[in-house]
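In response to reviewer comment 3 from the previous cycle, which asked for concrete evidence that the modeling workflow produces usable outputs, we include below a single protein chain processed end to end. The sequence was submitted unchanged, and the resulting structure tokens are shown without manual editing.
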Amino acid sequence: MKPVWLRQGYIPDSETVEVRQALREHDVYTVCEGAACPNRQQCYADGTATFLILGKNCSRRCGYCALAQGKPQDVDVTEPQRVAAAARQLTLTHVVLTSVTRDDLADGGASHFAATIRAIRALDPAMTIEVLIPDFQGDDRALHQVLCAGPDVLNHNLETVEGLYAEVRPGAHYRTSLQLLQHAANHDDHHGTALVKSGLMLGLGEQQDEIRVALTDLRNTGCRMLTLGQYLQPTKQHLTVQRYVTPEEFAHWQQQALSMGFSSVVSGPLVRSSWHAAESYRHCR
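The workflow returned the following structure tokens.
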């Protein structure tokens, strides 16, 4: 049974109509639905959503993720404009974009991320944009494409500690993710430098010293923004929860991360990558 601190108040569908209508009208997807985020009703009620681009099917089979797995769909070149239109209709001030992993594409989908960033900028230059990207299999050229489009925040989740990578993220590599974050933090051109962000799930069996090492590794890349949340098993076919981390321990890790030099740390049982993303961005700026 889930502990009491993971229970959420009921939010009627009537309070989420505006967001759902905009998504249907422009035929765009959200990771809120695809990944079965526990906060989706709250975010929709607040008028926000995290857009999922490049289809619904992921080319990897991570043990924690609820996104559909299977043959990826063809890239829809009209999607960037539709996402931009939906963001404008929702009068978002901070837009969060993410995608399934697309190892089948030569650039991992980087050019599509860049096209979506530019489409949003064309409709509303004042919107700030955060991208949560896959690892692009360590391809610096793909990362460069995204960064040159000028996102305000470049997010790539480390997800878990190094010792659990083979089980939690098969097909990914701990050091590859750290290297991507470091290259993003060091990237600087006429577009400016994006704030670098990452996140960890707790409750997968990691030890306290492993968490501390992962936070140190993240900070050493130049990562400034951090999210820490509880792993929740989406289906019985996914990895089981090893423990439920208390709110007090999340508060402890928040203070530890801040003492390491992170500028923004959002830490709690229901925290996800884009939870209060706009507020975190404003705090860092």
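Residues 110-123 form the longest helix (14 residues). We consider this sufficient to address the reviewer's concern, and the full set will be provided in the supplementary archive.
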